[in-house]
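Need tokens for this chain, all 118 residues.
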Amino acid sequence: MFTRCRKYDFLVLFPVNPATLAKYREAFTPSHVKADPTDAEIALELLIHHRDKLKALRPQSASMRTLERLVEQRRRLVGDKNRITNRLTSALKQYFPQALDCFDDIAWRIARNCSSST
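Here are the structure tokens for all 118 residues:
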């Protein structure tokens, strides 16, 4: 979630070390019970009362956020290519295994044919 929030330049994020939050919880919750709603309240209290001691993350530049989105998109496309290639290879192995002998690298052949058709 943290990385998803970083792509918006209007959000100011204050990362809190989990050990700091645990010590703060320990100081005010003698039962040492850990619960997400309680931790959220403690984190909010820490932010309200001690913001001056916390360091805000500076938002990245617009070009850096764009680059992150492009890298994310490329990662998804590479995953898609791998998934499709694996499915095709599996189907060929089941129904027409001799076809695999025609290709040195089926992924390269598919990519080459797709790029030349556009």
